[in-house]
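Let us begin with a simple case.
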Amino acid sequence: GLTSLGLIKWASWALAAGGASMLWASVQRARFHGGSGGLGVVEVDERQIVYLAPVGGGFLSLDGLSEVAIIPDRAGLPVWRFTGGGERLSVPTSAAGTEALFDALTALPGADMEAAIRASQGRPRETIVIWRR
């Protein structure tokens, strides 16, 4: 009798902890600034970040990334900068589809999602490193 009640109590705590972590992830996702009205479109497919734009588009593999940062452009607006394999991909945070980057970034161990959220919502004055290998 008592052993089974103890098991139920611990299972309840585990479920509550899992629910709390899912809630926290949902809150972060809601705060993450998805772009609209900017130049180009971002897609994340098969662990590839693809930026389709008339000028400056490109792609990089998540597996080959060495750094993810948000930098200010010439107008002071935030731009994602992905670096890997000697290549750089710059994506305006206002590009359509940038909300897909949230899931891609959470797959990187140690990515500073709070810094990403803050930087994408404002006008960064300097480079803000979100993740570095």
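The second case is a distinct protein. As before, the sequence precedes its structure tokens.
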Amino acid sequence: MERLGIGGNNPPEPTPHDAFTAHIGDLFTEATHFLDGEPISTEGQATAVSALLDQIRKASKDADKARAEEKKPHDDAGKAVQAKWKPLLDKADLAVNAAKKALAPWLLKVEEENRAKAEAARKEAEAKAEAAHAALAAADTSNLAAQAEAEALVKEAAKADKLATKAEGAKAHATGGARAVGLRSYFTPELTDPAAALSHYRATQPGALRAFLVTLAETDVLNGARTIPGFEVIEERRAV
């Protein structure tokens, strides 16, 4: 005698996904019989396709409702985790932003001091290089002392150049933690001459400009516009 497995005499109910997989699959198969590329030529065909369309719409709506119901516990769990952690992260972000704002004026001051030091070091290096060049040009090749003095000036000029280069590379940093806090440049465009900007982007990014204009026109059409300078508003009749 064959033994029945667990649930063998009472199979589990199909899940909503299983049920809609079968239902929508059947509707799709039925649709392939009507929608085979041949145009609808009779009122009966139109009625049948309209009825099938209604069934498919209802099945799709019901399936999406079942999907939302199945997904809801996961969404609720995610929202609960977000609600639990967001206040802590927001508080940390608030402190981080406040610390950055407090450090910015100090870092800008240090940056300006570094810039002034670098300019002074570069001027000194240039002056020493000029003096060394003049000494070499004036030194008598037969005068050993003059040659030695000129060579010493050349070495001093080279040393000054290295110091100036180092000063020019100095960054303003606050190094109290594992990661140094510094300054970064952020650039924000501000429109001052729309005509010049339009001319520039017409020449450099015509495709992007065209897409932007089409987006503006599409919004106007959705809001009821039927005449737009530079555009032809085309009417197309579709089944709904």
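Residues 193-240 form one domain. The chain has three domains: 16-83, 103-168, 193-240.
Keep these points in mind for the review questions at the end of the chapter.
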